[in-house]
Amino acid sequence: MAIPRGESMTQKISTIVGISKESFADAAKKGVAAASKTVRGLKWARVTGFELELDGGKVKSFRTTMDVYFDIEGR
Length: 75
Hints:
- This protein has one domain (11-71): 2-Layer Sandwich (Dodecin subunit-like).
- Helix content is 17%, strand content 51%.
- It contains one helix and three strands; from the N terminus they run βαββ.
- The mean pLDDT is 89.
């Protein structure tokens, strides 16, 4: 949606965590895909952290933490 000149848009930020057994990138994709099922108007995301779940000396899963930004509706 294009914002007409002279108007502003307000966005909300939510923190989400995507989890994957494959990679950080896959975890990010899964997190955004899950958020898009319940949040309309997702605009962009900022990765804020990476974590690994370990099992002894092996990586069990990848976790990507992100802030997702979306428009507030009903102004």
